[in-house]
């Protein structure tokens, strides 16, 4: 044998020198759940180490994260059932605790990046991302509602809007509405290839946002389809998306790779709640090494082509790579 690939793996120094993929905490966005009230830190049962926070408790947690190098956060509101309605009016109400929380966080930590979901589901009495009428999720009628939600978030100081609703035409609609109101600097990271996935279960438990009837298959993508992601990406980019996202991540590495190879905009991936829960469950049983599995998972998503990764492991990753 004159070619022996093992020679490039023979010491830690050589392995580090030829390592192709670098993953750092700066690539990670940490999703966190917010709840109205004071002194609240409730663990999400299926996602150990992830909590619903009231803003007073979240501020010191953000400080800890920032010290660890985690400086990007995606905030999700757990909304009281009594405040939900068909059109999600609470999402742009001046009383909305979540919008107040964004302001409070930005005031205390102006340097952090705050991102926010745009979709009706946490605010909708139907639990769908769009407006429901006679069992149908209406597309064009949903757009003005998403515009209102986006503008309210922009006014509260959000850095990146993340439309996760999968309505057609929503990126153009939101972009125009933000620009018309002077928010040209607010970015859009579009949930571009968002699949109708079985892996969102723990997230819907965290926010109590599961659909009351029907499923999300008429707007989220079919897991069988890859080429269709090209259509979605082209539309989103032409409509004004600054970054495009694939979601979930672990089962969709091929889609991440395809979009990264095809389009010049940054590609991100959402390592979703069910993917996080699986690793925790196996680790708890002693079937996987938690830290090794987390590292390999995030590294693989980066290797597939993701520039940024939304992941519930962000804080743990920061902690384990600092040791
Ligand atoms: C809401 C939304 C969902 C997630 C992010 N934004 C759930 C859904 O579409 O039902 C899932 C995130 C996760 O599972 O971690 N539109």
Automatic annotation (TrEMBL):
What are the GO BP annotations of this UniProt entry?
protoporphyrinogen IX biosynthetic process
Could you name the Gene Ontology cellular component terms for this entry? cytosol
| CDD domains in the cross-refs | ALAD_PBGS_aspartate_rich (cd04823)
Among Pfam families, the record links this protein to: ALAD
- In this protein, the active site sits at 194 (schiff-base intermediate with substrate), 247 (schiff-base intermediate with substrate)
Q: Its catalytic activity?
A: 2 5-aminolevulinate = porphobilinogen + 2 H2O + H(+)
Give EC number(s), comma-separated: 4.2.1.24
GO MF annotation, one: porphobilinogen synthase activity
User: Which positions does UniProt annotate for Mg(2+) binding?
Assistant: 232
Which pathway does it operate in? Porphyrin-containing compound metabolism; protoporphyrin-IX biosynthesis; coproporphyrinogen-III from 5-aminolevulinate: step 1/4
Keyword annotations of the record: Heme biosynthesis, Lyase, Magnesium, Metal-binding, Porphyrin biosynthesis
Family indicated by similarity: Belongs to the ALAD family.
Q: How does it assemble?
A: Homooctamer.
According to UniProt, the name of this protein is Delta-aminolevulinic acid dehydratase
What organism is recorded for this protein? Answer: Taishania pollutisoli
């Amino acid at each position: 044998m004159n070619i022996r690939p093992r020679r490039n793996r023979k010491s830690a120094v050589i392995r580090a020198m030829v390592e192709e993929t670098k993953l750092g905490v700066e690539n990670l966005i940490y999703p966190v759940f917010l709840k109205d009230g004071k002194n609240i830190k409730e663990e999400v049962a299926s996602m150990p180490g992830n909590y619903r926070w009231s803003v007073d408790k979240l501020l010191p947690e953000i400080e800890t994260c920032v010290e660890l190098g985690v400086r990007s956060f995606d905030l999700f509101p757990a909304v009281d059932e009594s405040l939900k309605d068909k059109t999600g009016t609470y999402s742009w109400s001046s009383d909305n605790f979540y919008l107040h929380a964004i302001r409070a966080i930005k005031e205390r930590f102006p340097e952090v990046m705050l991102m926010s979901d745009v979709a009706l589901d946490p605010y909708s009495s139907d639990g769908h991302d769009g407006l429901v009428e006679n069992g149908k999720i209406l597309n064009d009628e949903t757009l003005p509602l998403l515009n209102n939600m986006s503008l309210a978030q922009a006014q509260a100081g959000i850095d990146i809007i993340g439309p996760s609703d999968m309505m057609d035409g929503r990126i153009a609609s939101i972009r125009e509405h933000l620009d018309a109101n002077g928010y040209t600097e607010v970015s859009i990271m579009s949930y571009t290839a968002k699949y109708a996935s079985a892996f969102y279960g723990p997230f819907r438990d965290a926010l109590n946002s599961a659909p009351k009837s029907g499923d999300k298959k008429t707007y989220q993508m079919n897991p069988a389809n890859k080429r269709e992601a090209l259509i979605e990406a082209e539309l989103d980019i032409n409509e004004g998306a600054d970054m495009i996202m694939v979601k979930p991540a672990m089962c969709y590495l091929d889609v991440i790779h395809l979009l990264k190879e095809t389009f010049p905009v940054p590609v991100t991936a959402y390592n979703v709640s069910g993917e996080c829960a699986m690793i925790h469950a196996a680790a708890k049983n002693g079937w996987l090494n938690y830290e090794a599995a987390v590292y390999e998972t995030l590294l693989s998503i980066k290797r597939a082509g993701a520039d940024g990764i939304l992941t519930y492991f962000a804080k743990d990753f920061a902690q384990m790579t600092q040791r």
